[in-house]
């Protein structure tokens, strides 16, 4: 064996070292594969959660919450383009983070910032070390422990809808896996937002049709013109008097506005009849709450609104329709509309009678309290009447 061949041979120590190195490399590869597989599972789960809702607020909240878990973000936000002409962006930020890490304004101008650049070019940007960046961000100050910032465009159908902003306490490198993960997340968010916007457009169109039906229904009968609007306004006033939340006040307003929409399924001559209804006619008119609920269900309105329409003719003592439920089993918003609807009906002329006096109406509310009407709603209603709030 010549000296050249002899020098190429490995001793025991070198062989042992190479064996250990190979085992280490195999382990690293296995771990890398496991990490990639784990991340893939997270991305799939996140995509499913984001796409499971058609409500914009739910999509945004799910996205921001998931980003922190998936990529270890300290702060993240989703900027949605509000006005193409002005470049104004609505910035939705991580809700769970401390006040010191939040942007002060929700509406920001993208022009001249990293957001504007990403929105203009449609390409992601990464600032590896924020301390060395002197551009405009409209993001948290780097003194909050943020080291790197990544901004990814959120697209759908060839249009840029906004941008996904992720800030981390560690360095993000352009070539690292996290960039690929964030790109996938931005694509998922874009599709979910596009679906939500399309659905919102359809819902808005549907509600316009429903409101037009309600207006057409009232236009047929001079006695009920303005009835639904009065019920909506007064129901909201009663809800406020009872201490209900702003959201509940809004829902009872919508319920009041649409409470009689089911009457489109009732024959017109029955609605305009000046004499007593026959049992068959009475039966037909009693279906209007159920018909109304079925009309509203495709609009994906809050369930509370649909239930308010469905149960607004239930009596507190169980004598109402369509189900004859009792007391607090009747949804509160329906109980409010029940009282307000009756109040306006008694105060208005009808084809078969003239309006009753205000004194008689107030006495009737008291007489029917605990029978047809929820006593708490009646008391709130009477207080508003006394203060002249239902003019």
Mind explaining what this structure looks like?
53% of the residues lie in helices and 10% in strands. It starts with a helix and ends in a 5-residue tail after the last helix. The chain is elongated. A hairpin with a 4-residue loop joins strand 1 (75-83) and strand 2 (88-93). It has 391 residues and is an alpha+beta fold.
| Net shape | elongated
Number of strands: 6
Order of helices and strands: HHHEEEHEEEHHHHHHHHHH
Structural class: alpha+beta
Helix percentage: 40-55%
In terms of DSSP E residues, the strand content is 5-15%
Estimated radius of gyration:
32 Å
Q: What's this entry about, in short?
A:
The protein is an alpha+beta fold and 391 residues long.
Give the key terms.
about 400 residues, alpha+beta, six-stranded antiparallel sheet, 14 helices, 6 strands, about 10% strand, disordered N terminus
Secondary structure layout:
Layout: H1 3-8, H2 12-51, H3 56-71, E1 75-83, E2 88-93, E3 107-109, H4 114-121, E4 125-127, E5 148-156, E6 159-168, H5 177-219, H6 227-241, H7 246-258, H8 268-271, H9 279-285, H10 288-296, H11 303-310, H12 332-347, H13 358-367, H14 375-386
Helix pairs in contact: 2-3, 2-5, 3-5, 6-7, 6-12, 6-14, 7-11, 7-12, 10-11, 11-12, 12-13
């Amino acid at each position: 064996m010549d000296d050249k061949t002899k020098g190429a041979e490995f001793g025991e120590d070198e062989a042992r070292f190479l064996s250990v190195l190979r085992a280490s490399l195999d382990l690293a590869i296995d771990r890398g594969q496991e990490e990639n597989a784990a991340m893939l599972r997270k991305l799939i789960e996140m995509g499913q959660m984001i796409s499971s809702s058609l409500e914009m607020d739910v999509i945004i909240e799910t996205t921001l919450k998931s980003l922190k878990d998936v990529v270890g973000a300290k702060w993240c936000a989703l900027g949605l383009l509000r006005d193409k002409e002005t470049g104004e962006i609505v910035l939705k930020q991580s809700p769970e983070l401390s006040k010191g890490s939040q942007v002060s304004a929700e509406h920001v101008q993208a022009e001249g910032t990293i957001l504007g650049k990403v929105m203009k070019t449609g390409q992601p940007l990464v600032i590896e070390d924020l301390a060395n960046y002197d551009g405009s961000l409209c993001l948290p100050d780097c003194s909050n422990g943020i080291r790197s910032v990544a901004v990814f465009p959120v697209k759908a159908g060839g249009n840029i809808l906004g941008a996904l902003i992720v800030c981390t306490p560690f360095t993000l490198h352009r070539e690292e896996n996290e960039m690929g993960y964030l790109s996938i997340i931005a694509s998922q968010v874009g599709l979910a937002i596009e679906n939500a916007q399309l659905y919102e457009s359809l819902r808005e169109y549907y509600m316009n049709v429903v409101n037009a039906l309600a207006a057409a229904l009232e236009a047929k009968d001079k006695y009920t013109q303005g009835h639904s609007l009065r019920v909506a306004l007064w129901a909201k006033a009663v809800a406020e008097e009872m201490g209900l939340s702003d959201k509940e006040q809004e829902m009872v307003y919508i319920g009041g506005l649409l409470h009689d929409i089911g009457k489109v399924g009732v024959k017109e001559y029955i609605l305009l009849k000046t004499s007593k209804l026959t049992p068959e006619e009475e039966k037909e008119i009693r279906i209007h709450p159920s018909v109304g609920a079925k009309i509203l269900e495709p609009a994906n309105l809050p369930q509370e609104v649909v239930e308010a329409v469905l149960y607004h003719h239930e009596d507190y003592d169980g004598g109402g329709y369509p189900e004859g439920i009792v007391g607090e089993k009747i949804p509160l918003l329906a109980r409010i509309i029940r009282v307000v609807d009756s109040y306006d009906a008694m105060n208005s002329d009808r084809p078969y009678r003239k309006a009753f006096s205000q004194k008689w109406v107030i006495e009737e509310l008291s007489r029917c309290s605990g029978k047809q009407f929820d006593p708490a709603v009646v008391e709130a209603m009477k207080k508003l009447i006394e203060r002249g709030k239902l003019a």
